[in-house]
Amino acid sequence: MLSIDTINENTAQSSLPSLQEIAKLSLSERHKLLRPLIQEIAEDVNNDPELDFFSEIEGEGLENDDD
């Protein structure tokens, strides 16, 4: 099985492994790799009003046919 150490060695020049490489990892290894990114994304969404824009427009134009 592919390990996080192997990916880290192979991706020293790039910032992240490909999605295919991440998918080959065990769940715990994926978690180790993605944990810092998820924290950064959450901070960005909380601190950047432009990133909140999509949640505001997500429901626009949708009508409820159940009425």
Task: Describe the protein in words.
- The protein is an all-alpha fold and 67 residues long.
- The chain has one domain.
- Helices cover 63% and strands 0% of the residues.
- The N and C termini lie far apart (53 Å).
- The relative contact order is 0.10.
- The model has no long low-confidence stretch (mean pLDDT 73).
List the helices and strands and how they pair.
Layout: H1 4-10, H2 19-23, H3 27-47, H4 49-57
Helix pairs in contact: 3-4
Task: Give the integer mean of the pLDDT values.
Answer: 73
Weakly predicted, low-confidence segments: none
Shape: elongated
SSE sequence, one letter per element: HHHH
Terminal CA distance: 53 Å
Count of discrete alpha- or pi-helical segments spanning 4 or more residues: 4
What portion of residues is helical? 55-70%
Residue fraction in strands = under 5%
Radius of gyration equals 18 Å
- How many discrete structural domains? 1
Total strand count, please? Answer: 0
The main β sheet shows up as: none
Computed structural class: mainly alpha
Summarize it.
The chain starts with a helix and ends in a 10-residue tail after the last helix. The model has no long low-confidence stretch (mean pLDDT 73).
List keywords for this structure.
elongated, mainly alpha, 67 residues, single chain, 0% strand, 4 helices
